[in-house]
Amino acid sequence: MAQTSAQKCYICTDKYSVFYCYDCQHALCAVCRERHDKIPAVSGHTITDINGIDLSNVNSDKSRCVTHEKEYLYYCAKCSDLICGKCVTSSHKGHSFSEISEIVPGKREAAQIALQKLKSQINNISSLKDSVRAKHTEKLHNASHQNIADIISTCDDLETFIKSKRDIKKTEVEDNESIEQQCIDQFLKNTDRIHDQYVQVLTELQNVLCEKHDTTFYKLYTAIDKDITCLDDIPKEPTFPTVPFVDKKMLCKEILEYIQSKTDMR
Predict the structure, then answer these.
(1) pLDDT of residue 3
(2) Which runs of consecutive H residues, i.e. helices, occur in 210-230?
(3) Taking the CB of residue 88, how many other CB atoms lie within 10 A of it?
(4) Cα separation, 9 vs 26, whole angstroms
(5) Which of 39, 23, 24, 30 shows the shortest CA–CA distance to 9?
(6) Which strand (E) or helix (H) includes residue 27?
(7) 83-133 pLDDT, tens per residue?
(8) 138 vs 130: CA distance, rounded Å
């Protein structure tokens, strides 16, 4: 939750505020909070610690009807949206509606479920990255290293020609390893991007769940819920990289043919 800057009390204007009243949309010091609570007409207002909220959210137009500029009071079941008192008798006339507080618990439960799912998916992404980084790279390196060793051992007996053959075959395997490693790195990079998307939405969702004001929470969660549905799918583990097969018999044949050609020339 973002930290709020120090604000003076709206009522006395002398002391710094400690509380925030969602319904009045005013910051209050401790003394004025007591005075506020003694007024019967506002005794049911929602008040919270000002250090636990983000005023950029509560002071925005998220809690007011865009059409009538009135506070949201109800939830329209037909339109799945918050409405004000004027909406009831105008654009939403005849629709079934209820108190906002009646539908928010269900949304909070949905947010909690989404939070747990995101955590699980992020753990799966992390495990996938670790698996690919360890198993794929190791298998690629070991297979490539073995092929290089075979090429070198086959060519050690002959000096100039064998060295040229060795270097050619070695380069082929190393180039292949480089290409395959680039594929692995690209996969991990893309997975990192997806991981960051999930972490970002998770963080935003955690912050929204700290929001005490039902109307503000609903509007924020609705926006985040759309982001959740747009998250990329967790990628499947790619196939293991391929390493070019070294035909040692063919290599020996080429060496023998080279030796034979040199013998014929002589």
Answers:
(1) 42
(2) 214-229
(3) 16
(4) 8
(5) 30
(6) strand 26-28
(7) 998 999 899 999 999 988 899 899 999 999 999 999 999 999 999 999 998
(8) 12
